[in-house]
Structures are given as structure tokens and as C-alpha cells.
Amino acid sequence: MSKSYDLFLGEWVLDTELCHFEQGEVPFAATYHIHDEGSDLIFDMSLTDQNNETHQMTLCGKPDGKLAPFNGGDLVDALSITSVSSHELNSAAAMNGVVLMSVIRRLSPDGTQMAVLQEVKLPTGEISTNKSIYIRKQIH
């Protein structure tokens, strides 16, 4: 049985030349591995920063659009994943019910590129936006 997010499954590699960051530096390299287990959707992310340090993060949740408890330390306490359509997959992170970060992932019509738009609400109330393009490395 196919799921609305099936086209997102697989491994993605960052095209650093097509990035525009308002917050932080564009990584030297990054990968995104999206897969599912049961009813959960899992995002394994790895990036190498400009200082050659590697950072890894995993997000996991049901793609039902509902905020669910998430152990994000002092930064966030809830996460939602929303499968909008076969070409849009979004997530949001919140603290005390207030969304502080949202990520919109959109696929190109042929499914070979994934545009990632990350918006973070800064303590000043301003919104910082990072735009990234990932290229499909392999299909899940």
C-alpha cells in the first residue's frame, strides 16, 4: 500500500551551491535519509560543518499533522510531521504549544530534487529562513 510521502523515501545529498542561509553557515556537506518503520516516518540527518565537524540528528514521528511530545531539551518539547501531498512533506517544532521552527520539503516534478525551506522564530520575534536543495542519491 503506497503512502502519500513515498516519493520522499530514500537518501538525499545537499547541493551546497544552491543553498541560501540567513542563519548559520551553509554546511560543507549534508545528507538526509528518510525512511519509515510501521506508522512512523524517520529523518536521519548528517552534516559536516565548515570546521569539518560532523553533526547528526534523527527526528521520528507519525505523519499525521499533530504535535506530539519530543525530547528536544530546552529548545522544543513537541514535533509534528504533516504529509501534505505526494510532493510536500512538512514538520514543525514547538515549545509550550508555540511553533518555533517549521520545515517545508517540496519535491521537483520528477522527484529528483527536494527543496527544504526552514524557518526559525528567533527570540527577537524575527523569522530567519534557510533554503537548501537536496539531490536524490537513491530510492528507498
- Overall pLDDT level: 92
Rounded radius of gyration (Å) = 15 Å
Helices, by number, come to: 0
Number of domains: 1
Distance between the termini: 15 Å
By CATH, the architecture is named Beta Barrel
Q: In sequence order, what are the helices and strands, one letter per element?
A: EEEEEEEEEEE
The percent range for strand residues is: over 45%
Give the tags.
single chain, 140 residues, mainly beta, Lipocalin, eleven-stranded antiparallel beta sheet, 11 strands
Q: What would you note in describing this structure?
A:
- This protein is mostly beta strands and 140 residues long.
- It has one domain (6-139): Calycin beta-barrel core domain (Lipocalin, Beta Barrel), CATH 2.40.128.
- It is 0% helix and 63% strand.
- The chain has no helices and eleven strands.
- Strands 1, 2, 3, 4, 5, 6, 7, 8, 9, 10 and 11 form an eleven-stranded antiparallel sheet that branches.
- It is globular.
- The two termini are 15 Å apart.
- The model has no long low-confidence stretch (mean pLDDT 92).
